[in-house]
Design goal:
The structure is a single chain. Helix 5 runs antiparallel to helix 6. The chain contains seven helices and no strands. It is mainly alpha-helical. It has a single domain, classed as Orthogonal Bundle (N-utilizing Substance Protein B Homolog, Chain A), CATH 1.10.940.10. The longest helix is centred in the first third of the chain and has 21 residues. The radius of gyration is 14 Å and the shape is globular. The two termini are about 20 Å apart.
Length: about 140
């Protein structure tokens, strides 16, 4: 899948997972509404659906992995940053075909778009540590 397709899927997944964290609604309910309001189709749609299903489905292991590298409790991390960190960690752990550099670059780009001004540095630092733990040979 081309980078642009995964980028669009990640961008939409950040927004959907933010809404999931904020409202507590099931991801399937958010997915239905989100798909109708976005320009997702084909591979873009499939990867978006995978992310918003797999991240909540593996939230315990994802959050434990992230939490080991945070300087504060996960609950004190901004919800949009949580969504970005969760997607990045999911990809690092479960999507071994995606290079670490691509995952980190995408997370930084998403943080620059959606998070506070300097959040991309924090996201990059945390995900870099997660990558060193889960993909030490990468």
């Amino acid at each position: 899948m081309a980078r642009s397709g995964r980028h669009l899927a990640r961008r939409c997944a950040v927004q959907a997972l933010y809404q999931w964290a904020l409202t507590g609604q099931p991801s399937s309910k958010i997915e239905d509404r989100f798909i109708h309001n976005q320009q997702l189709s084909g591979k873009h749609l499939a990867y978006f659906q995978k992310l918003i299903s797999a991240v909540p489905g593996n939230i315990g292991s994802i959050d434990r992995c992230i939490s080991r590298h945070l300087d504060r409790e996960m609950e004190k991390v901004d919800l949009i940053e949580q969504a970005i960190l969760r997607i990045g960690t999911y990809e690092l752990v479960f999507e071994g075909d995606i290079p670490v550099k691509v995952i980190l670059n995408e997370a930084v780009d998403l943080a620059k778009v959606f998070a506070s001004e300097h959040a991309y540095r924090y996201v990059n630092g945390v995900l870099d540590q997660v990558a060193r733990e889960v993909r030490p040979d990468a």
